[in-house]
Amino acid sequence: MPTPIPSPLPLFPLGSVLFPDGYLPLRIFEVRYLDLIGRCNKHGLPFGVVSLTQGAEVRVAGAGAERFAAVGTVATIRSFEAPQSGLMQIECIGTQRFRVRSSELQKHGLWTAEVDAIAADVAVEVPADLEHAADALRRLVDTLEERRRMEHQEDLRLPMAEPYRFDDCGWVANRWCELLPMQAELKQRLMELDSPLMRLELVSDLLARNGIAR
User: Fold this and answer.
1) Residue pair 54/67 in contact by the 8 Å Cβ criterion
2) Is the peptide bond before 8 cis (omega within 30 degrees of 0)?
């Protein structure tokens, strides 16, 4: 069952795109986000990740307000460390997408928003003509896991979280979107697609262009 979305939802604008089931490590040192993440971790609350369309992740004096995409993804904290004062290191997992209905910039620089949840992708089995995309992803995961074992780095995180669902169009497409080199704007458009099959078809084209899978 999805984690209830707080109202209003605190936002974390980033220069990247978080997909449902995606893995997101963050190093936090800005005061506004230290406070946000501290509260979320203490009370077991999620926050929203939105992709920046204007501005930078770290505020610069005199810069205008950030602007961000209208569709984002809820993030839940999976691990939390505060190795020193003024620094937090967290690992998050993306859960469900949302659409921003209205947003407000608080006086301390934190954005909050009223949002509407977007239904999760319908589970669609990977069709035969797109199995090459799933097979290539499986081979990549196997290679990374073997390297981790050979180097005795069992604590090393892979760039995706289990459980693996190599038979699911949306899951396979989302993982490739995270791995492939592409602009955040294109990742955002792919994340917003309602059809997981269409998303995987477009990803398959990108894989072919990159010579990864045909």
Assistant:
1) yes
2) yes
Q: What is the pLDDT of residues 162-201, one digit of tens each?
A: 889 999 999 999 999 999 989 999 999 999 999 999 999 9
CA distance 126 to 28: 37
Alpha-carbon gap, residue 168 to 197, rounded angstroms? 9
How far is the CA of 180 from the CAs of 127, 142, 176, in angstroms? 21, 17, 6
